[in-house]
C-alpha cells in the first residue's frame, strides 16, 4: 500500500474512531444516567445505588490485566468488535427482561457487570491500537479527538438523559442505546487496526507463552523502562490524591457553602467545557516538544487549583462571587486535565513497544482503578473528622512536592536530552603534520 493511500486511510480512521467513540460514550452515559435515576426511584436506597457503582468499578479492576494480555496476543480489531457486540447483546437481554417480567435490581447489576467488562476490553484495546490506526505525526490529534468525543458526551448526556427520562419509558432508553452500540460496531468493522502497527509476527513452531508468563513479561518490560515507571507512579499519586478533590469539592459546595443544585451542576459542566475546548485546541496544534516538562508544570498548576477550592472557607465570599469563582476554577481544572493527559499519553504511545502496549496500559488502569476508591474512602473518612480546608491544602501540597521530586530536572533531562545545556560539544583538535 502506498504512503499516500495509508495517510488517506489514517484520516478516515481519525474521523471513524472519533464518531464511534462519541456514539458509544454518549449512549453509555445516557444509559448510566437513566439507570442511576431508576435505581434511586425504585429503591430510594443509597446502598443500592452504591452497589451498582461497585458492579461497574470492581470488574474493570479485576479484568484489566486479562484485557491487556488479550490485546497484545490476539487481533485487536476482533476484540473491539466482539466487545461492542457483547455490549449490544447485554442491553438486548436487559430490554427482554424489562418487557417480559419488568426490571429487577439483579438484572440491572448483571448488565452493569457485563458492560463494565466489555468496556474494559474495548478501552484497553482501542488505546493500544492508536499507533496502528494513525500515522505517528497525528497521534496527538487522535488522542485529542478521542478526548473531545468523551467530553462532548459528558456535557450533552445529562441534558439528553434528563429530557428523555421524563418523556420516554425505560425500554425506549435501552433501544436507543442498542442502536448507538450497533452503529459503533458497523463503524469499527470498516477500520484497519494494523495500518501502521509494528507488532512482531508469530513464528510457526515457536512455543507460546501462557497468560501468566505473558503478564510477567509485561511487568519485566515495565521495570526496564524507568521513564514510563516514573510517569506511572506520578499518575497513581494523582489518582489517589484526586480523591481529596472529588469528595471535598461536592462536600464543600453542597454542605459548607449551601450552593443550589442548579449552580452546582453548572460548575460541574464548566469542567467538561474546559476539557472539550482544550481537546479541540490540542487536536489542531502541533505536538509539544517537551511533553514531560509540560506535564510536570501542568500537575503543579493542578495542585494550586485543587488547594484553591478551600479558599472560600478561609475568606468570605458573596454567593454570586463564590459561584463564579468555582465555575472558573472547574473550567481551569478541565483545561489542565487535557493539558497534562494528552502530551503524556502521546509520549507513552511513542515510547511503549506495540507488542507490550495492551499489558502496560492495563497495568496502569488496574492500579489507578484500585487506588481511586481507596482514596475516596480514606478522604471521605477524613472530611468527617478534620477541617475540609486543611485536608485540601495538605493534599495539594503533597501533590506538588511529589511531582517536584519524581519529575526532578535530572528525570526530565533523561526524557528530553536536548534540555541538558551542560553538555558542550568540544571542537575537534586538528594536529598539523
UniProtKB/TrEMBL annotation:
The protein's matches in InterPro entries, at most eight in alphabetical order, are given as: MFS_trans_sf (IPR036259), TM_effector (IPR010290)
Residue spans making up a coiled coil are none
- Record organism: Sporosarcina koreensis
Gene3D superfamilies, alphabetized: MFS general substrate transporter like domains
Protein's UniProt name:
MFS transporter
Does Mitochondrion appear among the keywords? Answer: no
Alphabetically ordered keywords of this record? Cell membrane, Membrane, Transmembrane, Transmembrane helix, Transport
Q: Which domain of life is it from?
A: Bacteria
Q: Where are the transmembrane segments?
A: 12-31, 79-100, 106-127, 148-168, 174-197, 218-242, 262-282, 294-317, 323-340, 360-382, 388-407
Amino acid at each position: 500500500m502506498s504512503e499516500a493511500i495509508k495517510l488517506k486511510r489514517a484520516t478516515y480512521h481519525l474521523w471513524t474512531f472519533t464518531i464511534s467513540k462519541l456514539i458509544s460514550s454518549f449512549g453509555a452515559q445516557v444509559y448510566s444516567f437513566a439507570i442511576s435515576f431508576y435505581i434511586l426511584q425504585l429503591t430510594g436506597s443509597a446502598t443500592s445505588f452504591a452497589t451498582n457503582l461497585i458492579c461497574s468499578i470492581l470488574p474493570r479492576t479485576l479484568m484489566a490485566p486479562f484485557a491487556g494480555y488479550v490485546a497484545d496476543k490476539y487481533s485487536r480489531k476482533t476484540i473491539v468488535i466482539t466487545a461492542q457486540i457483547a455490549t449490544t447483546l447485554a442491553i438486548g437481554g436487559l430490554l427482554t427482561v424489562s418487557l417480559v417480567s419488568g426490571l429487577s435490581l439483579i438484572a440491572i447489576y448483571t448488565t452493569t457487570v457485563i458492560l463494565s467488562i466489555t468496556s474494559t476490553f474495548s478501552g484497553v484495546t482501542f488505546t493500544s491500537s492508536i499507533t496502528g490506526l494513525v500515522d505517528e505525526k497525528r497521534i496527538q490529534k487522535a488522542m485529542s479527538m478521542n478526548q473531545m468525543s468523551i467530553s462532548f458526551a459528558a456535557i450533552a448526556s445529562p441534558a439528553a438523559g434528563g429530557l428523555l427520562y421524563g418523556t420516554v419509558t425505560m425500554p425506549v432508553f435501552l433501544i436507543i442505546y442498542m442502536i448507538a452500540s450497533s452503529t459503533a460496531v458497523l463503524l469499527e468493522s470498516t477500520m484497519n487496526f494494523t495500518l501502521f502497527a509494528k507488532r512482531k509476527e508469530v513464528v510457526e513452531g515457536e512455543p507460546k507463552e501462557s497468560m501468566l508468563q505473558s503478564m510477567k513479561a509485561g511487568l519485566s518490560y515495565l521495570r526496564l523502562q524507568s521513564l514510563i515507571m516514573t510517569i506511572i507512579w506520578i499518575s497513581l499519586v494523582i489518582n489517589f490524591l484526586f480523591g481529596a478533590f472529588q469528595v471535598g469539592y461536592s462536600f464543600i459546595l453542597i454542605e459548607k457553602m449551601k450552593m443550589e443544585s442548579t449552580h452546582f451542576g453548572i460548575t460541574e459542566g464548566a469542567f467538561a467545557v474546559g476539557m472539550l475546548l482544550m481537546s479541540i485546541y490540542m487536536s489542531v496544534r502541533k505536538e509539544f516538544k517537551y511533553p514531560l516538562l509540560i506535564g510536570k508544570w501542568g500537575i503543579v498548576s493542578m495542585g494550586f487549583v485543587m488547594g484553591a477550592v478551600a479558599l472560600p472557607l478561609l475568606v468570605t465570599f458573596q454567593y454570586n462571587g463564590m459561584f463564579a469563582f468555582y465555575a472558573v476554577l472547574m473550567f481551569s481544572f478541565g483545561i489542565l486535565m487535557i493539558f497534562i493527559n494528552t502530551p503524556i499519553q502521546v509520549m507513552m504511545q511513542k515510547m511503549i513497544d506495540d507488542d507490550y502496549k495492551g499489558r502496560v496500559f492495563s497495568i496502569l488502569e488496574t492500579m489507578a482503578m484500585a487506588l481511586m476508591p481507596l482514596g475516596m474512602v480514606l478522604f471521605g473518612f477524613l472530611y468527617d473528622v478534620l477541617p475540609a480546608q486543611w485536608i485540601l491544602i495538605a493534599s495539594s501540597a503533597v501533590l506538588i512536592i511529589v511531582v517536584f521530586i519524581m519529575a526532578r530536572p535530572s528525570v526530565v533531562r533523561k526524557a528530553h536530552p536536548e534540555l541538558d545545556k551542560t553538555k558542550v560539544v568540544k571542537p575537534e583538535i586538528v594536529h598539523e603534520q
